[in-house]
């Protein structure tokens, strides 16, 4: 999730405010686009297609008034069936074309351009996530972000976390345990596995302990947070730190912009894709963005795997302590066990915000959220929080930071991260879609 | 000497970062709790959220 921002320090608020307001406005504008183009116009395309299909089949088209009446009648019929319990899902309000669009279709036997744009935006996944990330990155690296706005854009990033917590309203404990258990298997196998492999590989390649320790923690578990946690343990030098962070950010950024398209090209089901993001992408903000980009179901799965993954930060620090401090000391015949307080490490490094997520799941399990409230929280409000966070993420992707990737560990870190991503996808596909499906409470 | 200084600097930096991350976690827990409470008592509902969107078909 990057380095922490002390949002409770009210003395810093004036410093954060200008940039944060810019992120709010940016997020708001892009959400307008998302609702209109990706939402309404995409639905309009489907509706226009069905009208056009009827026209092309040679059926006599109804007048506009008849068209509206037919739509309303069909909706009321479905509502009645819903009330009688014949159908489980509450029917969605029908999309009714405006008169000028309806007549355009009848006259030109074609779909209006705006609907085609909505369809294209959907097909190419140009959703709010893509626009905020790509747009933010473009702004940052062309016109730039003035210094006065930079602290606020950094402070916008943690707003993804309330989204992660509130998303808990969608899960039942059975989902969290089922997907979490599969996620635990993936985390131990690939996430901690990557850290262990990098540690040994680095020793074999006689690479610097400090650099490899950082790279292992960062590439394996949780990007920048884990690298910062491990830095003092492995006696990292500032140069190593920047190499490692640069590599982690570069890999994460590449994943963020390629994973949704790889997923689409491979036709990955949403739960499989979500589990893949949760395992292979190194940073919470980037993986949540990549999963949201693909779809809501993918986000639901990725969120659980991510909660398990970041819960492993303390264990990643413990591994680094063992591998770089305890093991060499034992080899040299020294005793340092008394200095290592395992519980203290776990307590200090545990990301406590995930407790909020568990509280939300428990509230949902207890029936605190009716269906409409659950949709409001888990879709609409989560989307708003995510949009604010993604605005901050996009505006903080600076090419100069990515250029810092390098050094002897770059190749090892990069190869390990890519191998992890490929192998994880294979294993997740073998485990199957059902294991990672979040059913929710319907 | 230099190594010790670097190690101490990182230790200090890591402590500051984790202190900030811990406080960031508290802040996001507070924000999420307030929003969920507002939804539960009905202050934030579908109409409020829909009002954010002014560009509609």
Descriptive account of the structure:
The complex is a heterodimer of chains A (442) and B (57). Chain A has 20 helices and no strands. Chain A starts with 12 loop residues before the first helix and ends in a 6-residue tail after the last helix. Helix content of chain A is 74%, strand content 0%. Chain A has 442 residues and is mainly alpha-helical. The longest helix of chain A is centred in the first third of the chain and has 44 residues, at 13-56. Chain A is elongated. Chain A has helices at 13-56, 64-83, 99-108, 113-123, 128-141, 150-156, 160-166, 173-204, 209-230, 238-265, 270-280, 284-294, 296-310, 313-331, 342-349, 354-365, 371-395, 399-402, 408-431, 433-436. Chain B is mostly helical. In chain B, 81% of the residues lie in helices and 0% in strands. The mean pLDDT of chain B is 82. At the A-B interface, helix 1, helix 7, helix 9, helix 16 and helix 17 of A face helix 1 and helix 2 of B.
Spell out the helices and strands of chain B N to C. Answer: HH
Strand residue content of chain B: under 5%
Helix-strand topology string of chain A: HHHHHHHHHHHHHHHHHHHH
Strand content of chain A: under 5%
> How many β-strand runs of chain A?
0
Low-confidence stretches of chain B: none
End-to-end distance of chain B: 68 Å
Distance between the termini of chain A: 31 Å
Radius of gyration computed on alpha carbons of chain A? 25 Å
Notable characteristics:
heterodimer; A: 442 residues; mainly alpha; B: 57 residues; 0% strand; elongated
Structure at a glance:
The complex is a heterodimer of chains A (442) and B (57). Chain A is built from 20 helices and no strands. Chain A is mainly alpha-helical.
SSE map:
The complex is a heterodimer of chains A (442) and B (57).
Chain A: H1 13-56, H2 64-83, H3 99-108, H4 113-123, H5 128-141, H6 150-156, H7 160-166, H8 173-204, H9 209-230, H10 238-265, H11 270-280, H12 284-294, H13 296-310, H14 313-331, H15 342-349, H16 354-365, H17 371-395, H18 399-402, H19 408-431, H20 433-436
Helix pairs in contact in A: 1-3, 1-4, 1-6, 1-17, 5-12, 5-17, 6-17, 7-17, 8-9, 8-11, 8-13, 8-14, 8-19, 9-10, 9-14, 9-19, 10-12, 10-19, 11-12, 11-13, 11-19, 12-13, 12-17, 14-15
Chain B: H1 2-40, H2 46-52
């Amino acid at each position: 999730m990057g380095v922490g921002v002390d949002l409770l320090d009210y003395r810093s608020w004036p410093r954060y405010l200008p940039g944060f307001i810019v992120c709010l406005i940016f997020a708001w504008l892009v959400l307008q686009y998302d609702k209109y183009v990706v939402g309404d116009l995409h639905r309009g395309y489907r509706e226009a297609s069905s009208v056009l299909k009827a026209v092309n089949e040679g059926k006599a088209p109804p007048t506009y008034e008849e068209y509206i009446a037919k739509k309303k009648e069909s909706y009321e019929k479905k509502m009645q069936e819903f009330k009688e319990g014949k159908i489980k899902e509450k029917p969605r309000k029908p999309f009714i074309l405006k008169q000028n669009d309806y007549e355009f279709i009848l006259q030109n036997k074609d779909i209006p351009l705006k609907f085609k744009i909505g369809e294209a935006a959907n097909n190419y996944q140009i959703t709010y996530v893509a626009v905020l990330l790509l747009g933010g990155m473009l702004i940052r690296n062309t016109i730039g972000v003035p210094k006065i706005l930079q602290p606020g854009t950094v402070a916008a990033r943690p707003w993804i976390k309330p989204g992660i917590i509130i998303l808990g309203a969608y899960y039942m404990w059975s989902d969290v345990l089922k997907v979490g258990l599969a996620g635990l298997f993936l985390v131990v196998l690939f996430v901690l596995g990557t850290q262990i492999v990098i540690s040994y590989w680095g020793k074999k390649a006689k690479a610097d302990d400090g650099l490899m320790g950082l790279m292992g923690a960062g590439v394996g578990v949780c990007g920048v947070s884990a690298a910062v946690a491990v830095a003092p343990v492995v006696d990292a030098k500032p140069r190593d730190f920047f190499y490692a962070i640069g590599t982690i950010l570069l890999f994460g950024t590449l994943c963020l912009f390629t994973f949704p398209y790889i997923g689409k090209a491979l036709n990955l089901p949403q739960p499989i894709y979500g589990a893949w993001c949760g395992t292979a992408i190194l940073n919470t903000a980037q993986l949540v963005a990549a999963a949201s980009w693909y779809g809501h179901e993918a986000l639901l799965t990725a969120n659980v795997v991510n909660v398990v993954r970041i819960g492993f930060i303390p264990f990643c620090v413990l591994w680094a302590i063992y591998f770089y401090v305890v093991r060499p000391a034992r080899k040299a015949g020294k005793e340092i066990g008394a200095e290592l307080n395992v519980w203290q490490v776990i307590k200090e490094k545990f990301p406590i915000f995930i407790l909020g997520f568990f509280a939300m799941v428990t509230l949902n399990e207890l029936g605190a959220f009716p269906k409409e409230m659950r949709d409001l929280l888990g879709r609409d409000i989560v989307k708003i929080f995510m949009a604010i966070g993604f605005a901050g993420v996009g505006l903080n992707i600076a090419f100069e930071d990515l250029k810092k990737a390098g050094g002897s560990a770059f190749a090892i870190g990069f190869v390990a991260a890519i191998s992890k991503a490929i192998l994880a996808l294979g294993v997740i596909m073998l485990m199957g879609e059902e294991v990672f499906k979040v059913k929710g409470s319907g | 000497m230099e190594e010790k200084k670097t190690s101490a600097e990182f230790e200090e930096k890591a402590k500051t970062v984790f202190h900030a991350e811990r406080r960031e976690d508290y802040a996001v827990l507070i924000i999420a709790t307030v929003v969920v409470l507002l939804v539960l008592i009905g202050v934030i509902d579908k109409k409020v959220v829909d009002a954010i969107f002014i560009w509609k078909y």
